[in-house]
Amino acid sequence: MWIVELAFTPDPARLAARPAHRAVLTALHEDGRLRMAGPFADDSGALIVLDVAGRDELDALLAADPYFATPGVTVVRTQEWAPFLT
């Protein structure tokens, strides 16, 4: 399992790209690869939890979603995660 932490700025490009990004996340959730995702309460960033096979699959998913290259969106960290409760 992997976590992706994002940081946001108020760039309008981010808000314009968000509906398409959420459609990508919805599809990933429907096929079981996305566990949960959402913005922090203060909208300073977001956290995404993905259940993928490894770093190569994670990188491919991030590259396939243009949101991650949108002005105003920064990937702060990607980290493999080993939860003991789900």
UniProtKB/TrEMBL annotation:
Transmembrane region(s): none
Domain of life: Bacteria
Gene3D superfamilies to which the protein is assigned, alphabetical: Dimeric alpha+beta barrel
Pfam family, one: YCII
Stored InterPro entries: Dimeric_a/b-barrel, YCII
Entry's family note: Belongs to the YciI family.
Name the UniProt record assigns to this protein: YCII-related domain-containing protein
